[in-house]
Structures are given as C-alpha cells and as structure tokens.
Design a protein that fits this description.
Layout: H1 3-36, H2 50-57, H3 61-70, E1 77-78, E2 84-85, H4 88-101, E3 119-124, H5 132-145, E4 150-154, H6 160-164, H7 180-183, E5 197-198, E6 204-207, H8 214-226, H9 237-243, E7 251-255, H10 262-270, E8 273-278, H11 282-304, E9 313-318, H12 326-339, H13 352-359, H14 374-398
Parallel strand pairs: 3-7, 3-8, 4-6, 4-7, 8-9
Antiparallel strand pairs: 1-2, 5-6
Helix pairs in contact: 2-3, 5-14, 9-10
The structure holds adenosine-5'-triphosphate and magnesium ion.
C-alpha cells in the first residue's frame, strides 16, 4: 500500500470512529436525559414563602398577609407547618388587585408604558464559562417573577439556556425552530412569532437554540458577498426579527455564544444594553481585554454601515466570586478602578447551590430550599436577587422611572 492510500484509509477510520462515538454518546445522553431531567411539561416553578412573595410584589410581609385575606378567589396554600406559600399565579393576582385599589402612581404590574421602549439585554463575553448562561437564565426568570413580560433568547448553538429551561437542544428543538429560522437568508425564513415557546413561568417565553444556529455563521459571509442594495445588513436581522414581537414584551434577555462571531455581533447591535460577565481571574481578564478591543473595532464598522451603536447601559458583572479568595479580590479591585461604576455593585457569588441545581437543569428559582443547607441556599439566593435587582433598577432608569 502507498503512503497516500494509508493516509486515506486512516482518514476514513477516523470519520467512522467519530461517527460511532457520536452515535453512542447521543444514545447514552438520551438515556441519561430521560432518567435525570423531568420532561419540560413536568417542569414547574416552586411556591414562594411570605417574605419572598412580599419582596416579589414589592410590599411588606405584614401587608401581604393582610391583603391576601381580603382578595376574593385567592386560595393560598399553607404548608404542614402552617406557613403560607404563594404560587406565581397568586402573586400575579395580588399585583393586579393592588393596582386596582391602590394609588395610581404606584405600579405593581410593572409592564412598560407607551413611551417606554423594549429593553434588549445581551449577556456576552467570548470567554467560555464566564457565567453568561447562568446570568441570563436567572435574570430572565427573576424579571418574569417580578411581573415583567420577558423573552429569553438562546443564541448559543450549545443551547445551555434552552437545556436549563427544559428544552433539550437535540430532542425537543427541531429544524428551523431556533432563532436561526427568523434570521436565515433563504426562503425557509419564518416569523419569530412561530418560534416563541411558553415556559412554566407565566410571563416568561423562550426562543430555544440548538446546533443549527451555527448555520448563520456560515451563511453570513456568503450573503455578504451576494448582498444587494436595500437588503437588511446581517447585523440588523436579529433586531428586525425582535421588532415583530416588540409589543408583547418588556425585556428581552439574549444569551450569547462564547465567541465573537456574526451571532454575537447581531446580539450586540440588537441590544439596548450589554452585560459582560467576568470571572475575576487573570486569564479571564486578559481575554476580556481582547474581547473589548474586538468589540470596539466591530462596532466602529457597524456604525460606518449605519447600524445601531447606541446603548442605555453597559455593565460588567463579576461572576463566580469567592469573597475569601485574595487574588480574586485584588482582581475585582483592579476592575473597579479601571471601569468604575460600570462594574455592578453586587457580584454573583460562587455557590454550590447554583452548580448543584445546574446538574438537574434547574435554577435557584426552581429548586426547593429544602434540598440545600439553609444558609447555603439563602446566601446564594440573596446574591442572585441582589444582582438581578440592580439590573432591574437599570432597566427602570432606562425607562425614566424612579428607582
Ligand atoms: N455563581 C455560580 N456558582 C457556582 N457555579 C457557577 C456559578 N455560575 C456559573 N456556575 C457554573 O459554571 C459553569 C459555567 O457557567 P455558565 O454555563 O453560566 O457559563 P457560560 O459563560 O454561559 O459558558 P459558555 O461560554 O460555555 O456558554 C456552569 O457549570 C455553571 O453551573
Ligand atoms: Mg453559555
């Protein structure tokens, strides 16, 4: 046999081998999925204790108890220990009741008004594992629980956000069912309206992702070469798709892939605000430096081409922060000294509650408190709520509302 034929044979073997590995892994994953994760139809959001429910509504706990007794049709569960526990539906009824009886200037159902624009928050950084998906998933759920109408948009071909929300990218998301369907260049392009799915949290919808999103990275260079005058530029396609459902939401949260390709650039130009997740370690910060330089270059090109480069806010969020870690603290101090108030006050703490919940594809808002050591869970939730509350204030500020 010649060397050439040898090489060819080994190439075939490799293809075959990888194919077999892929099939075997897929079968195993499916079995694992069936045994570990509840099907999406069975995913639920837990009930909330009085203190939490009061916080979500925005009233004192005592007041919540008083008014809950007065609202007709409200049937609040009590636990075996006699504690009340509120469902998301209860909380919604209470909000609507308060708006009906309360003072006009106080809004409990916080939907945006006519002069308040849709907020599109893109969560990005090209560093893998910087906490983008964890941040996006919890932020979108938090805002929905606070009463906003939220769309979570999974722009990552890895589709971790969809998986976390119970939509397994290989099993539950078919062809042309990701946002790719609404931004593709060919005749199969469809309306984003057909791609939106309800989730188990009222007020929170999802456009799931899967590997087909990669197609956009491949199609775009070709489309750029063939582009005809008047055709929407690639970075406008996502924004144009979102425009179709603009009226139905208050906030869109976009989870970006860990690279700076056409998808992330589309999210950047569609966004009204940008959240950059940073794990405070030297290597991560060095890579973020490159990320920022590239973003600036790309945005300049977008600007030259007439695209949107105006933002309401940009914030850096410190993720997986360990307060007892000296070097991390130094790095946070360093970031704050450079970026000033652009770094969110609250960091997202590293906690086993988040990583453990993630193992069964759940968020902190879904898992039951009883699954964890109480202090671990409470500290985790407190950190998450503080981060999300700070972002909510930025959203309100963008609408011109008082904090
Ligand atoms: N606050 C936290 N505490 C503990 N673990 C965390 C925390 N935030 C994220 N993690 C874990 O770190 C890992 C990476 O997080 P995540 O998937 O959110 O990052 P990402 O930036 O979206 O990654 P990718 O670049 O691959 O999309 C996950 O396993 C997640 O469970
Ligand atoms: Mg991710």
């Amino acid at each position: 046999m010649t060397a050439m034929a040898d090489e060819k044979a080994s190439v075939f073997t490799l293809v075959d081998l990888i194919e077999r590995h892929s099939a075997a892994l897929a079968a195993q994953l499916q079995a694992h999925h069936v045994s570990t994760f509840p099907p999406v139809a069975k995913k639920t959001i837990r009930h909330f204790q009085p203190a939490e429910a009061a916080k979500l509504v925005g009233v004192k706990e005592v007041y919540l108890r008083q008014i809950s007794e007065k609202i007709e049709g409200l049937d609040i569960q009590t636990t075996t220990g006699g504690r009340r526990s509120y469902s998301v539906e209860d909380i919604d009824i209470i909000r609507r009741h308060l708006d009906k009886v309360g003072r006009a200037e106080r809004m409990y159902v916080p939907h945006r008004r006519d002069h308040e624009g849709l907020q599109i928050i893109s969560v990005m950084n090209f560093k893998g594992g910087s906490g983008k998906t964890t941040t996006a998933a919890h932020l979108a759920q938090f805002l929905a629980l606070r009463g906003y109408r939220v769309l979570a948009l999974d722009l990552d071909p890895q589709a971790s956000l969809s998986a976390l929300y119970g939509h397994q990218p290989e099993l539950d998301v078919g062809e042309n069912e990701t946002i790719y369907g609404a931004i593709r260049y060919d005749d199969h392009k469809r309306s984003i309206k057909e791609l939106v799915r309800k989730t188990y949290i009222p007020g929170l919808d999802l456009v799931p992702g899967n590997l087909e999103l990669m197609e956009f990275e491949h199609d775009t260079p070709r489309a750029l070469m063939k582009r005809q005058a008047g055709e929407a530029l690639f970075f406008e396609r996502l924004g144009n798709a979102i425009d179709e459902i603009e009226a139905e939401y208050d906030v869109v949260v976009i989870d970006c892939p860990p690279q700076l390709g056409y998808l992330t650039l589309s999210a950047l130009t569609a966004a009204t605000s940008v959240l950059v997740t940073v794990h405070p370690q030297m290597l991560d910060v060095m890579s973020m430096n490159q990320f920022l330089a590239m973003v600036a270059d790309l945005l300049r090109e977008v600007q030259t081409a007439g695209g949107n480069v105006d933002f309401a806010w940009l914030r850096y969020l410190i993720t997986r922060f360990e307060p007892a870690d000296g070097p991390q603290n130094q790095m946070v101090g360093y970031l704050r000294s450079i970026f000033g108030t652009h770094v969110l006050n609250f960091p997202m703490l590293k906690t086993t509650a988040v990583s453990d919940a993630g193992i069964t594809n759940q968020t902190l808002y879904e898992v039951e408190r009883g699954q964890f050591t109480r202090s671990t869970y409470d500290r985790a939730l407190d950190s998450m709520d503080s981060v999300n509350g700070e972002i909510e204030q930025l959203i309100k500020k963008a609408w011109g509302r008082a904090a």
